[in-house]
Design brief:
Length: about 80
């Protein structure tokens, strides 16, 4: 129940911010209301792409971390020839 209430309050805050911002910019209640309605719709469309992007970024960072570990391990185990 608490999670649902939190989600609803987040939606209300997002819509209020969109409304107030557009109202301040345009002075129009109609445009403020339109922005308040469009903002959550746009979020629903864009959020899956945002999540996929962050999954890829995390995978890339993990791959770089693993590659760095392999390179540092190779450097420790490498024996350099000594010129006699």
């Amino acid at each position: 129940m608490v999670i649902a209430a939190k989600t609803v309050s987040q939606i209300i805050v997002h819509m209020a911010v969109a409304f107030v911002t557009m109202y301040v910019v345009t002075g129009s209640i109609a445009f403020g209301g339109l922005a308040a309605l469009l903002e959550p719709i746009c979020n629903v469309i864009v959020m899956p792409f945002h999540e996929k992007l962050w999954v890829r970024i995390q995978q890339w960072m993990e791959a770089r971390k693993q590659a760095g570990k392999q390179l540092s391990g190779m450097a420790r185990n490498t024996v350099l020839p000594v010129n006699a």
